[in-house]
Amino acid sequence: MDVQLHRLLPLLLLLSWPFFRRGDHSAARDAADLHPIVILPGHSCSQLDARLTEEYEPAAPPSCGARKGKGWFRLWENRTALQDPALLPCYAEQLRLVYDPVAGDYRNVRGVDVRVVSFGTTGGFIPRCPSYRKLVEALEGVGYKDGGNLFGAPYDFRYGPAPRGQPAQHFAHFVSSLRLLVERASARNGNKPVILVSHSQGGINAMAFLDQSPLPWRRRYVKHFVMVSTGAGGIVTALRALASSVSHPPPPGDVLSLFGNTGRSFESTFLTLPSPKVFAHTPLVITRARNYSAYDIPELLAAAGFSDDEVARYRTRTLPGVLNFSAPIVPVTCINGVGVPTPELVYWDDIDAEPRVVYGDGDGNVNLASVLALDTVIGKYLGQDYYKSVLIPNATHTGILADDFARQRVVSEILQANTAVY
Ligand SMILES: *[C@@H]1O[C@H](CO)[C@@H](O)[C@H](O)[C@H]1NC(C)=O
Ligand SMILES: *[C@@H]1O[C@H](CO)[C@@H](O)[C@H](O)[C@H]1NC(C)=O
Ligand SMILES: *[C@@H]1O[C@H](CO)[C@@H](O)[C@H](O)[C@H]1NC(C)=O
Ligand SMILES: *[C@@H]1O[C@H](CO)[C@@H](O)[C@H](O)[C@H]1NC(C)=O
């Protein structure tokens, strides 16, 4: 009897599955059946706290040191400081990154300690980027529970991964924290492997995280990777922002824009520049004097006022990682919006004028070319057994989580990842 039942059980489950699935997604499932999820949010969504130590010597007004030794305060995002002309220069300085040539690595400004808020929870990024609240609520609607089988991995978005062999103390710390989080999430959920869900820059970090985690570990702990709104080769929008920052230099203390004063110091600023592997020799920026393709980004950065050292770091630190964007080996579903006007070509006729933009297809941010390249870079990679690309017409870069029609699709793909047998 027993033996027969054992034999029949998989069959019964298989047969009953379609009926199971027919129910609408709002029907809460038995949480015990679900694989735990860890979410990696996009650029600038994670909140950061800072504290000033005795080592801090303000370059801006001495009053910037007022909080020295007085404990943690909100650094990102601190609306009060952003709106107070007296605090803004302090804020812009304390948020900067510095490159330390001796260590060969980026670090915080001396005397400024920075940590992410609420690592392990979604509370560390929901306040800054409310579209994740909608995603979390939708996941709760299908049986997930924030803190039980649903977790968040905020990160200090100013930093980026570095190629192997180069020091990246900060990213290494993130990798070990995330590994622990994934292991704990699994342990608390019947040892089931975890589904990683990323959005935008979170996808680049998740890829680097997986690349730096041994294959047996990946196979044991990662059931599936659902990468939302990330292409295989950067975005032309980053070049437009670069050109704009030259034509109309952001005011000193500008901390919000990608290539604003403070943004320029971030290691992550170069991360989304178009990849030569994807855009090849297509002209992306056209000026009177010459055309720039993805191969010419070093020259473009120099024309935009980056120092020789900064351009060298793009070449030696960012570019190898961009070129190495590859298959994570664990099962992947990529989900991207398409059919939304997306900057594809930048005319930068006159250094002093705002660049003109020609639009193509994409999600408003990520170009279709970058999305389609996933099929080759991940899909055709030998050893990448499961790869699925989902294109959602009319979904924008963040609308993909915020708009009902797109989010429902994202959630249904996450549910499919839960039950997929590879
Ligand atoms: C915002 O920053 C200022 C100083 O830069 C600090 O005094 C204040 O406490 C911060 N706000 C929060 C909520 O931490
Ligand atoms: C690129 O990826 C391969 C395979 O994951 C790895 O062996 C190599 O070290 C990586 N190169 C860099 C520069 O990170
Ligand atoms: C720049 O690119 C445009 C558009 O592809 C092309 O028409 C033009 O000939 C190119 N200019 C140069 C100097 O290569
Ligand atoms: C996308 O939006 C446009 C304009 O609102 C609409 O005409 C089109 O039918 C939509 N396409 C899809 C597939 O929803």
UniProtKB/TrEMBL annotation:
SUPFAM superfamilies: alpha/beta-Hydrolases
One GO MF term: O-acyltransferase activity
Gene Ontology annotations of biological process type: lipid metabolic process
Residues in the signal sequence: 1-23
One Pfam family it belongs to: LCAT
Keyword terms: Signal
UniProt protein name: Lecithin-cholesterol acyltransferase-like 1
Lineage of the organism: Eukaryota, Viridiplantae, Streptophyta, Embryophyta, Tracheophyta
